[in-house]
Write a structure and sequence with these properties.
heterodimer, A: 217 residues, Jelly Rolls, eleven-stranded mixed β-sheet, 40% strand, globular, B: mainly beta, five-stranded mixed β-sheet, 35 strands, disordered N terminus
Chain lengths: 217, 498
């Protein structure tokens, strides 16, 4: 059963923190402050920003993996942390970033979760006003990542890397009218971890007329 | 197979850039001009011999321009002012007319520059004919002028200018009437703008007029000292100063092109605007050492730096890193890389409880070859961009393809991972992969050097698409094909030693 936490009430982080720690039998620690780059959700949908970045995501609490980042190691991590098994004992959090990127280090640290040698599952739903051809999903991720659109694998980045705008870019895609589900796995070795994502139009310019919701169905 | 390919790659490193293909012998060529899908130039010789090309790379002789004139020679007024020789023409397209200016010297410095007017350069066209429009300028054999070597510019304001002259006196400038091709103000004396040179021509860019001339001696094969020099001025009438402030009328001239490699004596500059940010220039070499030392036509990239044109070089076959000017990442086969020389910590591991020892230099690490690492490569892979790490999947052999055709100045190339047959291939929908080389048009690449020195890499054909598409860094890790945008770094690439 999925556990979903809405960060519109940031104290939920602390409740989750306490619950998770208790479940794992770890000594209770003082609640950490909320992630400084995450803000409360406002309204059921959110328009992408003026540069096309998607700000609203569901993020699963991090899954420990080996943290190696070669192509083979990433495949192993995806098998180890495959859904839905990885959801056991972990909550999904509905988050919204104040910046162009989602700082997963902030996210995990505020929950007293590990930030190194972990895999984060993230997902969101983009509402397209019409069918759009020859668009691309363009992402940056720290570190390796795999991305799917409506279940189709579209981007694969390996190796230790920083989150660079438009680093991994998909081939030309079709956004269907209505809801399109993006899912990604971000695998971090050590240190900072974050990602950003936007769509590009058929001229490789940011696509700005999209709404983001967290309801896939 | 691998050894054979590696051997070929090593050989290709030694190959010079050819000065075009086919029948390229010419002296004093007119500015190469594109008309109705063909490229044309005319040179010194009986009746102004013509060279024609369908693609700008492979050329053929195509008779002479004056064979279309009554009597096959200059008219009586030209002969009266000059002589019966026909040398060093230049051609320009103004409105619905072509103006051909040609040298008609007698015993120098007595000479005239004649004008031919026509509607088309295509001898197969029903409109093909030339009108003898008589002499435009001349030198009487006494004055400080030798009226040969015309060069024509249509300026930014539509005014038409002719420069001419040779070593017997000044390089001179007169204004022409764009309607007739004749002098606009025939009673005004010409303006003297340079000395000690010939083969002059003007070009214009960003508020500057550039006067390009040829210094040195011609016509002695590999003993010729021809070299192209230049000055610039805000006013078309000069003064034309070089980079050191020396007026070309006092012998100044910044070097533009000199002898290099297997080509001796460049001369007779002509601007060829290819469009979309690509500029090239035509010229001849007094001696092409690869063709027995004859004088041949060439077309080369024109670059710009600090307000001066730079003579670029056509790409030489070799092994290259292909780096995106946008992202700084390099094109690679999409396979897991392996560090050159293997995994290595910055410092050796500590022995016991002490600190790790300082690193000590070891023997040189050999370059990484595919034979060392390709066993882990998937049989079928795409391409991507990645940080340059000198790894085998990042080294590309760029080599001309025999009988693959070409474009102004160069042949189509294949782009293949060194030591393999995996070649850059355009796929349906405008994406990319690496496939075994078959010679298909989607594996042939046009590589033009742009005015900033970077390169544009264009697929000869993209399956299912009629549009011309260029290699583009749509992301730091993702190459694709897209329409070339001169204003963007996406489709600009640096080719260098890996």
């Amino acid at each position: 059963m999925k556990r979903v936490v809405n960060t519109s009430v940031l104290t939920v982080f602390s409740l989750c923190l306490a619950g998770t720690c208790a479940a794992q039998g770890e000594p209770a620690a003082a609640p950490r402050p909320p992630a400084p780059s995450l803000v409360p959700l406002k309204g059921p949908t959110q328009r992408v920003d003026s540069r096309g970045f998607l700000h609203r995501w569901r993020v699963l609490e991090p899954v420990p993996v080996a943290g190696r980042l070669t192509e083979a190691a990433v495949k192993e991590a995806l098998q180890l942390a495959a859904l839905p098994g990885a959801e056991a004992g972990r909550a999904w959090h509905e988050i919204e970033t104040a910046h162009y990127n989602v700082n997963l280090y902030h996210f995990a640290w505020s929950l007293s979760k590990p930030t190194s040698n972990v895999l984060f599952w993230v997902e969101t739903t983009v509402e397209s006003p019409r069918e759009m051809h020859d668009v691309r999903l363009a992402i940056g991720s720290n570190a390796a990542s795999r991305w799917w659109l409506n279940g189709e694998p579209i981007i694969a980045l390996n190796d230790d890397r920083q989150s660079v705008i438009d680093d991994g870019v998909s081939r030309r895609l079709t956004l269907r009218k209505g809801r399109n589900v993006i899912r990604a796995a971000i695998i971090n070795g050590g240190g900072a971890t974050d990602f950003c994502a936007r769509f590009l139009d058929d001229k490789d310019q940011p696509l700005t007329g999209l709404d983001v919701t967290l309801r896939a169905e | 197979m691998l050894k054979r390919i590696l051997g070929c790659a090593a050989m290709m490193l030694a190959l010079p850039a050819h000065a075009l293909d086919g029948e390229t012998i010419v002296h004093d060529p007119s500015t190469v001009i594109l008309h109705a899908g063909r490229y044309y130039t005319y040179g010194t010789g009986n009746g102004l011999p013509a060279l024609v090309s369908d693609d700008g790379w492979t050329w053929r002789r195509a008779g002479s321009l004056m064979s279309a004139l009554p009597g096959g020679k200059a008219g009586p007024e030209v002969l009266a002012r000059g002589g019966s020789n026909t040398w060093a023409p230049d051609v320009i397209h103004i409105g619905d007319k072509f103006f051909v200016y040609y040298s008609a010297p007698a015993t120098q410095p007595r000479s005239a520059i004649g004008l031919l007017v026509g509607k088309t350069l295509d001898p197969q066209s029903p409109d093909y004919q030339w009108e003898d429009a008589g002499p435009v300028v001349w030198s009487d054999g006494v004055e400080d002028s030798n009226a040969i070597d015309p060069g024509v510019l249509s300026g930014p304001d539509g005014r038409l200018w002719l420069t001419y002259g040779s070593y017997f006196g000044y390089i001179r400038l007169v204004e022409l009437d764009p309607k007739t091709g004749q002098r606009r103000f025939p009673r005004q004396p010409p303006v003297n703008i340079a000395i000690n040179s010939e083969a002059s021509i003007l070009i214009y860019r960003d508020g500057w007029y550039y006067l390009l001339v040829t210094h040195g001696s011609c016509c002695q094969g590999a003993n010729s000292t021809y070299n192209i020099r230049m000055g610039r001025s805000r006013e078309v009438t000069g003064p034309y100063l070089d980079n050191m402030g020396i007026d070309m009328i006092e012998g100044g001239g910044k070097l533009f092109a000199a002898s290099r490699g297997r080509h001796v004596g460049p001369g007779h500059f002509g601007l060829l605007e290819v469009g979309a940010g690509v500029e090239k220039f035509s010229l001849h070499y007094e001696a092409d050492l690869d063709r027995g030392g004859v004088s041949v036509l060439d077309i080369r990239p024109l670059l710009w730096r600090d307000g001066w044109p730079i003579a670029g070089d056509n790409l030489v076959a070799g092994t290259y890193s292909i780096e995106s000017a946008r992202t700084g990442t390099v094109l690679e086969l999409a396979v897991q890389g392996f560090p050159v020389g293997g995994f290595r910590a910055r410092r050796p591991p500590a022995a016991g409880s002490g600190p790790p020892p300082e690193p000590v230099a070891g023997p040189p690490i050999a370059n990484q070859e595919p034979s060392q690492v390709a066993s882990n490569w998937a049989a079928s892979t795409g391409v991507r961009l990645a940080p340059a790490m000198l790894q085998a999947q990042q080294k590309w052999v760029i080599a001309p393809v025999d009988n693959g055709g070409g474009y102004p100045g160069a042949p189509y190339f294949r782009i293949t991972v060194a030591g393999t047959e995996r070649s850059l291939t355009a796929t349906a929908g405008g994406e990319l992969t690496a496939a075994s080389f078959s010679g298909a048009p989607e594996q042939l690449w046009r590589i033009d050097q742009l005015t900033d020195g970077t390169y544009r890499i264009v697929a000869k054909s993209v399956p299912g698409m009629s549009e011309t598409l260029a290699l583009s860094a749509v992301g730091s890790s993702m190459p694709t094909l897209s329409k070339f945008d001169p204003a963007s770094d996406r489709q600009r690439w640096l080719l260098g030693a890996p």
